[in-house]
Design goal:
With 115 residues, the chain is mainly beta. It has two helices and five strands.
């Protein structure tokens, strides 16, 4: 019977649904939680310190970086919450750097424009 490789969640020593908060390596905070047998890591306080809030979430090899900025000026009374979402597909992060007139990330894709 072949040896089963232990998953990252099993190696972390955290049970399903349990969580652990600790100080990160770079002075920030780290939250680790096991969900559906996968270890999720939430890190904050390291990048984008000028944003009102910033967190990087990683599961396995996938990493998502999120920021939120708040305008602290007083706003007139409105009956909706204004929200703006900026979505960018970064080709340079996977090693595809196009040449020619439009460098680095090129023109926005259709999905990026519609988002």
């Amino acid at each position: 019977e072949p040896d089963k490789a232990m998953t990252e969640a099993e190696l972390s020593g955290i049970a399903e649904g349990e969580w652990e908060m600790s100080d990160g390596e770079d002075g920030g905070k780290m939250l680790r939680v096991v969900v559906a047998g996968k270890l999720m890591k939430f890190e904050t306080g390291v990048m984008a310190r000028l944003a009102s809030g910033a967190v990087s979430v990683s599961v396995g090899e996938t990493v998502v970086f999120n920021t939120a900025c708040l305008d602290r000026n007083e706003v007139r009374a409105i009956d909706f919450a204004p929200l703006r979402v900026d979505y960018f597909e970064r080709s340079s992060s996977v090693g595809r750097t196009p040449g020619g007139y439009i460098k680095r990330d090129g023109r926005p894709s259709d999905a990026e424009t519609l988002a």
